[in-house]
What we know:
There is one protein chain. The protein is mostly helical. It has one domain. It has 23 helices and no strands. The longest helix has 26 residues, at 340-365.
Amino acid sequence: MAGVLAKRLRTVAASLAVILVIALALRVDYAWDYAQHRPRQALAIFPFLFEPGNVAASLAAGHGFSSPFRQNTGPTAWLAPVYPLLLAGIFRTFGIYKFASFAAAAGLNIAFSTLTIVPLYFAGRRVGGIGTAALAGWLWAVFPNAIKLPVQAMWDASLGALLAAAILWATLAVAGSRRIAAWCGYGLLWGLALMTTPALGAMLPFLLGWMAWRARRISRPALALAAAVLCCVPWTVRNFETFHAFIPLRSVVGLTLWLGNHSQAAGVWPGRLHPIDNQVERARYVELGEVAYMQEKKQQALEFIGRRPAEEAGAAWSHCVALWTGGTAHPLADFPRGDWPFRGILLFNLLAGAGALAGAIVLYRARNVYAFPLAAGPLIFPLVYYLTLGSARYRHPLDPALLLLTAVALNRGAASKGRY
């Protein structure tokens, strides 16, 4: 009898539907509690007072893709277009800066975060069987970042995580396919990801290279690459016509590089120097225009890096630590001072990083054919943030891969599945 009950419990625990329901319940419960402790008027405004919300408000008001700083500053390529367009649709439906818009946007982010379990689960099943799949799903279901980020501010992080997990699953599934439609669909998925979270593009050549090696031919990966590029062409053309400059996806690289690499970087919170909050920087942005402003910031950052390599190394280390801890560059000092929720989030983030490293080692030792595509994310995706800024939001698209690798480490006996 006990054996039958244990078997049923294992079956329930491995059920994708059960994991999804629990994950959704945890996110909705957090959102409800979050909303109960804050005025509705504040929630209608403050979560949108960042670049995506400001651009979405401009779109909803009929002023086009422009004005990322809560004032009319003209057209922008500050962000890729997909997420601001989604927010603009919500504003047009429920009203600009209304509580109903907050509820709808948070609900959309919660849906993205919950649905991330689906590709994560199937990728885990392919890599290490049903046990690994269920572990990865449960880890994502209770992951603090995935519960808090969808609600606290309206950014593309939750959608980026969903797309990153879908790309990981599709990479494993499509690599051995001979169907042209599958490769085209893979390319279109990449196109959507690039138009949502351009930083994911850092992994594109490595994953396509691995797929070409698996397929023993380059024609199909080249077809996927062409489909991805074609998705981005209309936006790139719009940017060229608007700014008379080649901006494939986003214009903001120069500023992000400067925020993390300048003479005050070690002593000033980067947000205080960001044009969205800093009046002097905002005035300079308006004076020069977006493209020239970004070029100036890029040049200033590169000059700083060249003049002070030791300080740059220290800044890169701080960014690295902040990325892997979920936001703090001084975890040993901050842990004793923080409250228990902060400590729990910090520990979960650190364990996710350590678990990912352990899982990559397990896959490598088991000669699992999927070792490279799973390890590519943690190795490649964070590099740009080591040079710029690190936070839980920036890392979030990588988190599904980290938790899948952690599940592999916890279920190490299944790693021999898919040996080459």
